[in-house]
């Protein structure tokens, strides 16, 4: 159900701003991945974890945009983000 809602919302937003359907599809895949990543049994902790995921995702996208002109720095930050995520997950 959440996938259908995500697709409907993102489809409307992408049409509003003139983007192709593939952008909405990517957003649905990201929301699916994020919803499977929150495994805490308590609803309050699920909400906190989902909120923290949003902060991390926005930071990673912002860093990607900021570093898009410098390939080496972008790759280095990517490796640091993956290492930090792996470390935090354990």
Short structural description:
The chain is mainly α and 90 residues long. The protein has 2 domains: 37 residues, no CATH class; 49 residues.
Strand portion: under 5%
Number of domains: 2
Tally of alpha and pi helices: 4
Structural class: mainly alpha
Low-pLDDT runs? none
Written account of the structure:
By secondary structure, this protein is mainly α. It has 2 domains: 1-37, no CATH class; 42-90. Helix content is 84%, strand content 0%. It contains 4 helices and no strands. Helix 1 (2-17) packs antiparallel against helix 2.
Descriptive terms for the model:
single chain; 90 residues; mainly alpha
How are the elements arranged and paired?
Blueprint: H1 2-17, H2 21-37, H3 43-66, H4 71-89
């Amino acid at each position: 159900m959440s996938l259908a809602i995500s697709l409907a919302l993102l489809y409307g937003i992408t049409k509003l701003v003139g983007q192709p359907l593939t952008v909405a599809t990517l957003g649905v895949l990201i929301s699916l991945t994020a919803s499977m990543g929150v495994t805490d049994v308590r609803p309050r902790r699920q909400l906190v974890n989902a909120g923290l995921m949003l902060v991390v995702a926005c930071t990673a996208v912002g860093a990607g945009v900021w570093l898009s002109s410098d390939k080496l720095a972008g790759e280095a930050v990517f490796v640091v983000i993956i290492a930090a995520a792996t470390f935090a997950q354990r």
